Please model this.
Amino acid sequence: MSKDGIAEFKEKILKKGNLPTHIAIIMDGNGRWAKRRGLPRTAGHKAGVKAVKRVVKAAGDLGISVLTLFTFSQENWRRPKNEVSAIMKLLYETTKREINELDKNNVKLITTGRIEEFSPRRREILQEARERTKNNTGLILNLALNYGGRTEILDAVKKIAGDVKNKRLDPEELSEEIFSHYLYTKGLPDPDLLIRTSGEMRISNFLLWQTSYTELYITDVLWPNFSAKDFYEAIWDYQNRERRFGRV
Ligand code: IPE
Ligand code: IPE
Ligand code: MG
Model:
């Protein structure tokens, strides 16, 4: 699509209104992208970073409030050691390199997941980035790192059990809203739209509690090929749906 075509598409979306407040993305297909080119899987992750930049820019420009990117799952530790280190290296290098630009664009970077399990040096880079951007009022860029949905729910249950034991919480008062406050995503609205690239039809332990009424959008496009136009298409699709929440 031409540059003008893209700009027109963006205008159409903005005119339509009813934008998703929170978009979550399962960025999948880096490995397949690389394989098709006869490249190592790590080349796919590197190309995936460029897609992240495109989508963060597009989301910020549209005025989306929250963009959650599934960046590294708890299960991803099961990958070959060299792939895990390559992903980690990319994550830290990209964070360090892009933080000025993100800050300039008023992006607030946060993380979701057990980052306390990362090495102190790596954690520091993320903490610095969070600290630097904490007063920004534009897009909230939420990186799901070492994230697993079931573990998140279990961690919440453990905290709740502790609070009940210490009499800080009356179990009778526990509601969905209070439960949400014990999750890693405390304070964030639930995703309105969940995009998964590369055609896989599964949730892969992502935001299990939070996606109970999220609209799903699955595209065959591999993550490194995902463009601003692909992102707009997902949003346009969402804008033309009817969300019923059990009503008629
Ligand atoms: C997604 O791409 C990136 C991460 C999970 C970190 P994959 O690496 O899963 O790509 P495929 O699924 O093998 O194509
Ligand atoms: C999900 O993708 C995790 C991330 C995108 C970070 P995977 O490629 O790891 O998912 P599965 O294992 O194919 O379900
Ligand atoms: Mg995958």
Q: What stands out?
A: Residues 27-32, 72, 76, 87, 198, 223 surround IPE (ligand 1) (CB under 6 Å). DSSP finds eight helices and six strands in the chain. The chain has a mean pLDDT of 97.
